[in-house]
Hints:
The complex is a heterodimer.
Chain A: H1 2-24, H2 33-40, E1 43-47, H3 54-60, H4 79-87, H5 91-102, H6 117-146, E2 149-154, E3 159-164, E4 173-177, E5 185-191, E6 197-201, H7 203-206, E7 211-215, E8 235-239, E9 250-253, E10 259-262, E11 267-268, E12 273-275, E13 279-286, H8 292-296, H9 306-339, H10 353-367, H11 374-392, E14 407-408, E15 422-425, E16 432-443, E17 446-448, H12 451-465, H13 471-484, H14 497-515, H15 525-528, H16 534-546, H17 560-575, E18 580-582, H18 602-614, H19 626-632, H20 648-652, H21 655-663, H22 665-677, H23 683-698, H24 703-723, E19 725-727, H25 731-742, E20 746-750, E21 754-759, E22 763-776, E23 781-787, E24 794-800, H26 802-808, H27 816-839, E25 842-851, H28 853-868, H29 873-884, E26 889-900, H30 904-913, E27 917-921, H31 926-935, E28 944-948, H32 953-977, E29 984-989, H33 990-996, H34 999-1011, E30 1014-1018, H35 1022-1036, E31 1040-1044, H36 1050-1055, E32 1058-1062, H37 1069-1073, E33 1076-1078, H38 1083-1121, H39 1134-1144, H40 1147-1155, H41 1161-1166, H42 1182-1207, H43 1214-1236, H44 1242-1265, H45 1278-1283, H46 1286-1313, H47 1317-1344, ...
Parallel strand pairs in A: 15-27, 15-31, 27-30, 28-29, 29-30, 31-32, 32-33
Antiparallel strand pairs in A: 1-8, 2-3, 2-4, 4-13, 5-11, 5-13, 6-7, 6-12, 8-9, 9-10, 14-33, 16-17, 16-26, 18-19, 20-21, 21-22, 22-23, 23-24, 24-25, 25-26
Chain B: H1 34-60, H2 75-83, E1 97-100, E2 104-105, E3 109-114, H3 122-126, H4 130-133, H5 137-141, H6 163-167, E4 177-179, E5 185-187, E6 190-191, H7 198-204, H8 215-218, H9 248-254, E7 262-269, E8 279-280, E9 283-286, H10 298-325
Antiparallel strand pairs in B: 1-9, 2-8, 3-7, 4-5, 4-9, 6-7
Helix pairs in contact in B: 1-10
Main location (chain B): membrane
Keywords (chain B): Membrane, Transmembrane, Transmembrane helix
Family (chain B): Belongs to the CDC50/LEM3 family.
Amino acid sequence: xxxxxxxxxxxxxxxxxxxxxxxxxxxxxxxxxxxxxxxxxxxxxxxxxxxxxxxxxxxxxxxxxxxxxxxxxxxxxxxxxxxxxxxxxxxxxxxxxxxxxxxxxxxxxxxxxxxxxxxxxxxxxxxxxxxxxxxxxxxxxxxxxxxxxxxxxxxxxxxxxxxxxxxxxxxxxxxxxxxxxxxxxxxxxxxxxxxxxxxxxxxxxxxxxxxxxxxxxxxxxxxxxxxxxxxxxxxxxxxxxxxxxxxxxxxxxxxxxxxxxxxxxxxxxxxxxxxxxxxxxxxxxxxxxxxxxxxxxxxxxxxxxxxxxxxxxxxxxxxxxxxxxxxxxxxxxxxxxxxxxxxxxxxxxxxxxxxxxxxxxxxxxxxxxxxxxxxxxxxxxxxxxxxxxxxxxxxxxxxxxxxxxxxxxxxxxxxxxxxxxxxxxxxxxxxxxxxxxxxxxxxxxxxxxxxxxxxxxxxxxxxxxxxxxxxxxxxxxxxxxxxxxxxxxxxxxxxxxxxxxxxxxxxxxxxxxxxxxxxxxxxxxxxxxxxxxxxxxxxxxxxxxxxxxxxxxxxxxxxxxxxxxxxxxxxxxxxxxxxxxxxxxxxxxxxxxxxxxxxxxxxxxxxxxxxxxxxxxxxxxxxxxxxxxxxxxxxxxxxxxxxxxxxxxxxxxxxxxxxxxxxxxxxxxxxxxxxxxxxxxxxxxxxxxxxxxxxxxxxxxxxxxxxxxxxxxxxxxxxxxxxxxxxxxxxxxxxxxxxxxxxxxxxxxxxxxxxxxxxxxxxxxxxxxxxxxxxxxxxxxxxxxxxxxxxxxxxxxxxxxxxxxxxxxxxxxxxxxxxxxxxxxxxxxxxxxxxxxxxxxxxxxxxxxxxxxxxxxxxxxxxxxxxxxxxxxxxxxxxxxxxxxxxxxxxxxxxxxxxxxxxxxxxxxxxxxxxxxxxxxxxxxxxxxxxxxxxxxxxxxxxxxxxxxxxxxxxxxxxxxxxxxxxxxxxxxxxxxxxxxxxxxxxxxxxxxxxxxxxxxxxxxxxxxxxxxxxxxxxxxxxxxxxxxxxxxxxxxxxxxxxxxxxxxxxxxxxxxxxxxxxxxxxxxxxxxxxxxxxxxxxxxxxxxxxxxxxxxxxxxxxxxxxxxxxxxxxxxxxxxxxxxxxxxxxxxxxxxxxxxxxxxxxxxxxxxxxxxxxxxxxxxxxxxxxxxxxxxxxxxxxxxxxxxxxxxxxxxxxxxxxxxxxxxxxxxxxxxxxxxxxxxxxxxxxxxxxxxxxxxxxxxxxxxxxxxxxxxxxxxxxxxxxxxxxxxxxxxxxxxxxxxxxxxxxxxxxxxxxxxxxxxxxxxxxxxxxxxxxxxxxxxxxxxxxxxxxxxxxxxxxxxxxxxxxxxxxxxxxxxxxxxxx
Amino acid sequence: xxxxxxxxxxxxxxxxxxxxxxxxxxxxxxxxxxxxxxxxxxxxxxxxxxxxxxxxxxxxxxxxxxxxxxxxxxxxxxxxxxxxxxxxxxxxxxxxxxxxxxxxxxxxxxxxxxxxxxxxxxxxxxxxxxxxxxxxxxxxxxxxxxxxxxxxxxxxxxxxxxxxxxxxxxxxxxxxxxxxxxxxxxxxxxxxxxxxxxxxxxxxxxxxxxxxxxxxxxxxxxxxxxxxxxxxxxxxxxxxxxxxxxxxxxxxxxxxxxxxxxxxxxxxxxxxxxxxxxxxxxxxxxxxxxxxxxxxxxxxxxxxxxxxxxxxxxxxxxxxxxxxxxxxxxxxx
Lengths: 1367, 333
C-alpha cells in the first residue's frame, strides 16, 4: 500500500509539475548556465518579477512553483487510468479480475463468459464514482483557495492590481492590508509601521492566536515612506523550500552593495493573517506547494480501520473455506470420474480422474466465488458514506456561532470512532476556549470574589449552551440598539439582567458575523466585560473621595495603605505587560502630547502625600516636582465624575450615607442596571460607576441637571473607550488589562518610552517607561520599570507565577508593625492562591518594588552593560533581572479563567467512563496544564500526581524506575483488594519526555503511563506529541484518537488512528489534516459515544450479516455438488446467481449498516459504559464470526435438503429444483436481517419489499421471455411454471421456517434471559427517577391542599422524612 | 419537505432538523423476547400441523408403483446387450409382468426412470445447443461448440440435435397391456402428447422453417446423434407432427433432471377408452418394468415434525419465561 501511495504521489508530482510549467509559460531557450546551477544547487535566487533583470528572472524562476495549489488526486484525463490502477491495487478487485479471466478458460468455464465480469464492472464503477466525487470536492476547495484575490504589483500598469492567489509567482510584489491572509511566503520589504514591523497571527498555521512580530528586512535603503517595486533591483538568495516553519536563512544583495542577512522574522508565512498593520509589501520567495505551510501539509496518511484489518483475516478464513470446499469437490469429482468413466452421460470419458479433479477445482472456484465477500468491500464503503452523511447532518454538531457543522474528511474510519481506547488532546483551544477571562483577585490580603463577574461568566456559559432560539428577538434588539443606546435614559426595564446579558453576546456574534470584521486578538466580549467587585469599587472610589476627607481619617473604613496597594495593583495590571493598543480606525494609539492641566492639582497631591505618609514601603516621602505633576493631567474630561468634582453634593452626602448605599449596591444593580445595560454593551463595565453617580445624584436636589451632564460625559468617554483594542502576546495579559480597565485603570496608549494610562479619579497620566524585562520561562515573570506618575519614584512592577513571586517577596525589612502586616498579607494571599488553584484558575501574583534613584542608577549601569554585551548576553540579562526583581512587595494576586469550553468536564468524565484514557499533550507550561486538568475533572481531588521533571537522561531513567515501583506497588495492592482503576496521574514535561521517548526508556515510560489514569505532557513539541501517540499506538496496539486545533497538533492528528481537528475561529491546518473536524470539544462525546458506537455496531453487524449471507448462499451450490458428481453444475440460473448478491440482497444490508440503531442515542449518552472500547460489547470477534458461519451452514443445509427430500425421485428438472431453493434462500436471508435488526423503519421495510419484488419480478420476466439465454441454465418458463404450483410455496414456507427457527429461538431466549447489566441499571435508574417523580407529585398533591410549601416543591432535600411513600 | 430553505441566512449551514437526518425516524424494534415470539410459535405450530395433515391426506390418496426392469423378466439380456455401445443398432425387447392390487383412480401417469444417470453433470449439461433446437437454420448446420464432442461426426457432418444430452436420449419404448380378468389382453391406451410444458413445445423447441420442404429435406446435410437408431425427423413413426425437435420424448429428455436418480414422463393414461375411464383398474399388466419405491411422504412428515418441534420450543420458551423472565425486569417494554 505504502509503495503504491508513493507511486501515486510521484505521478501527481509529475503531473503537477507539468501543469505548473504551463502556468509559468516561460519562453524556452533561456537556459543560462549560471541560473541552472543556482536552481540545481541548495539555494534559490529570487528576483523581482517585473524588475530590470527580466531574462534572468525567467531563467531563474522557471523551476519555481506557482502559487496555485492542487490537492486533487486526479485530473479529468488521468482519472480513468489512474483510478483503475489504484483500484486494481486492491486484492479484492484483483481476485475479481482473476475470476473473470479464469472463466475464459474453456475447460473450467462455469458461467457464460460475460457474467463473471459483471461484479467487477459494478464494483469498479461504484468506487470510481465515489472517488470522483471525493476528488471533485477537493477540486472545489482548491479552486476556492486559488481564486482568493490579492493585490499584486503589475509591471505593465505600474501599480497593484487584484490577482488570484494562483496567479502569484515567485518574485511578485504583494501588498496586503490589515486582516488579510498571506497568499504565499513573502519576504517583508515594507511596512506602514514607522518602526518597520508588522504583526501576524499564525492561528491558521499553529493555532496560536497571539500576535507575532515580523521585521522588515533590516536594510535602510528599503524602508521608507515611498517603497516602489520598480526600484527594487536586489537579488535575494535563500534556502530551497523546506518545511521548517521557524527556519529561514538567506541574504539580500543589492547591486554592488553589501549583503544583508535574512532570517525567519523577515518572512511572512502563507495562510497567516496580517494584524494591526495597515499595509505591508513583500516579495514572494516561495509559492504554492513550496511554501512552508504547504510543505508541512503532507498528504493525509492512508488510514485503514481496525475493523477492516479484522475483516481481512476473516476474509482469509473464507478463502480457506473456499479452498477446502473446492478441494472436496475436486477429490469427489476425481473419484466419481473413476467410477463412471464409461457412462453414456460422460462427455469426455478419456480424461484421467486426477486431471478432471484439477479442472473441477478451478471451476468450483468460479462457482463458489461469492463465498469471498468481495461486494462487501464496496458495501462497506457505501455504508461508511451513509454513516458519514448522518454524522455530517447531526444537529448536535452544529455550531451556531460559527455556522459550522462537523466536517468528515476521512470517509473510511467511521467505525474506529467506536473503538477508541486512548484519546490525546491538545489543551489550548481544544479543552479551553483560549480566551482568558479575569475572574477574581486578592489585594492586600483581601479577597474580592467578584460575585457578579462569576455570575456573568456563568450566564455566558448558559447562553452558549442554549440554542439560537432568540435570533429573531435578538435582531430586534439589535436594530433598536443603534437608536437607543446613546441615551442612558432609555428604559427597557421589563427585561431582566440575566436575559439581557444572555442575549447580548449573540448580538455581537451576529454583528461580527455580518460585518465579518475581526476586531483583533483576545478582544472577545467576555474578556472585555469584567463586572467589578462592588467592594473593590467602593474602596477605589473612596481613594478618590478620600482626597476630600483628608482630615477625618479616624472615620475611615479602610486604611490608606490598602488604598495604595489597590492603586498600585491596578496600575501594575494596566502597565506591566506588552499589550499593544489599537483601534480599527487608528492602527495604534500613541501617547498624545501632554496637555495643560485644566483642574487644580491640590487634592491629588494631598492625597498622595497622605498615602506616602503611611506607606512604610517608601522610606521617604518624595514630593513630586510641580512641573511633573502638572504634566499629569492631560484631559479635563475626567473631572466630570462626581468623585472628582468638588461641588457641594459630594461633601454634603455624608460618609455614612455613602457606605450604606454602597452596601445596597448589589441589590440596586439588579434593579437599576438593566436600564442602562440593555442600552449598550460597553455600558456594562461602567454601570457601577453610573450607579454611583445616580445614587449620589438622587440624593441631590438638582439631580436632573447633573444627570444630563453626566450622560454627555459618560457617553463621550465611552466613545473613546470603545475604540480601544488590546492586542496582547498572551491572552492572560489581555485579560488583565481588561480587568484593570473595568476599574478605570485604562491603558490608553503605548510608545517606546512611555505609556498613557487613565487612573480613576485622576485622569490620563503619562507613565515614563524605563525598562521592560520581558517574560521568560526561566524567570516565570515579567517586570516593567517605570517612573511613577504621581510620586516620581522609580518603581518596578512585577507580574509572574505565584511560586516565584512568593519566594522573591519573602524578605522584608521595616518596622515591626509593618512586618506583621506584611506577613498577614502573604499568608492571606497564599490562602487565596491555593483557593484559586483549586478552582482551576490561572494565578498570577503582582508585586512591586520601589527603587531609590541611586539604587536604580547602579542597576541601570549593569543592565546596559548586559544589553550591550555579545557573549553570554542571556546569562547577564538574567542576572540583571534577578538583581532587580527581589525584595518585592506583594500587592496581590489575580485569578484568571482560561475558560474551558462548555461541557468539557462532562465530556472528559463521560469519555473516561467509557473506558477511554484521556491524555493531555500541551505546549503550555506545567502549572497551567495541571490547572486545566483540574478544571476539566481530568484530575480529581483524590488523584495522585506523579511529576516527572528531570534535568538529565540518567535522572529521568531513575525517576521513571522509581515512579514505576511506586505505582506498581500501589496498583498491584489495589488489584488484589478491589478492582478500581488507579488514580495516578503522570505529569511529564517536554524535556523529560524527550528522554523518556528514547529507546532505552520507552519501555518503562510505557508501562508507567499505562498504569496511570491519565498522563499530562506539558511543554511538548509537536514532534513529541506525535511520538507519544505513535508509541502508544504501535506498542500497545490500541485505537488512538488525537484531537487538536492548531498546526502544532497536525503531526499528532495524522499519526493517530483517528485525528480530529477543532475548527474554531482559527486554525485550518489542524482541520485540513484531520479525519473529522468539529467545532467544540464537547462534540466528541456524541461523536464517540453515539456515532462511534453506532457506526461500529452497524458495520460489524453488517459485515457479519454479509458473510453469513454469502456463506449461506454459496453452500447451497456446494451441497448440490454431492448430487451432480462434483462437476460444478449449478441448479440456479447464472444470472440469478450473480445478481442475487449484487442486486437482490445488496441494498438491505446497506440500509442495515446505515440506519440500524442498537440503542437510542440518549441511552448511549447517558451510559458511557456502553461504549465498545471496553471490549465487553465487541461484536466483531472471531467467536461471532464462527457462530455466523455455523448458522449459515445450518441454514444452507435446511434450505437445500428440505427441497431435496421433497423433490427427490420425482421428474423435477434441475432448474425447477433450484427455483424453490433460491426463493427460500432469499426469504431466509431477508427475514434473517429482520430478526437481526434492532430497528426497522419504513425505509427498511421499503427496501426489503423492493428486494423481494425485484427478485420475483426479474426471475419471472426473465423466465417468461428469454428463450435461449444463459446457455446451460436456460431458465425459460421454469420459474413461471414453478410459481404457479402450490408445492413451490409449501416447500418455501417449510424451508424458511426451519432455517430461521434456531436464530429466532436464540434471540428470544437471549433477550428474555439476558440483558446487559448496564442496560438493566439504566432501566432501574429510570424507574427510580420515575418513582421519585411520582412520589413528589403525590407529595405535592397532598400538601398543596391545606398548607402549601412551595419551597419544598422543587427542593427534594426538604422532603419531610415522615412522608415515606411506598415504592 | 417541499419547503425551500433560505440558505443565505446566518444559520445557512445548519443541518435540517428532520427525523430522517437526525436519525429519529419512527422505528419498530423487533426485539424478540419470549413475549413476542411465543404467540407466533404457537401459531406456526398449528399452521404446520394443519398443513402436514392436509398434505398427508393428499399423499395418501395418490398411488405409485415402480418397476425396475433392469434385471426383471428377460430384460437382463437386453441390459447386457446395451452395455456395449457398439450394439446400439440392435433391437432388443423384453417383457415384464406385474399386477396392481388396487385400482389407480383418476389420472394415471407413466414414467420411465433412471438410476445413477447424471444428467446434471456440468459438462453433460453444457453439451447442447438451444439455438439449434429452437429452429435456427444457421445453427442446424453449424452447431455451437458447446456440443463438442457431439457437434459433428468423424466426417465433419453436423449432428442434429447436437450435444451429449440429445445423444444419450432415452429411447426405450413401452407398450402396456392389461390382462383383464377374462383373460383378454387389452392394450392400455397411453397419450403420448401433452407430456411437455406448452411453451417448451411451441416456443423453446421448434423445427427449422420448412418452406414447403419435408422435414427430411430440412434436416438434410445433418446426421442423427451417434446413439440414435432413427433420425430426428422420424422419431415418431405414428405421428408426423411429433417429429423433429418438437418430439415430445426429446423435449422431455432435454429438460435435464436435477438428480442422478430421476424419472421422466412417458405417457398419460388415455381415459377416453371405456376400460380405463376411471383410471387403471386392478389386475395383471405386463410391461418391461418393475421396482417398488415407497410413496413420497417427505413433505407432510417434515411439516408434522416441524410443527411438533416448534411446539416443543414454544413450550420450553414458555417454561423459561415463566421461571426466569416473568419478574419483569427485561420483559418490561
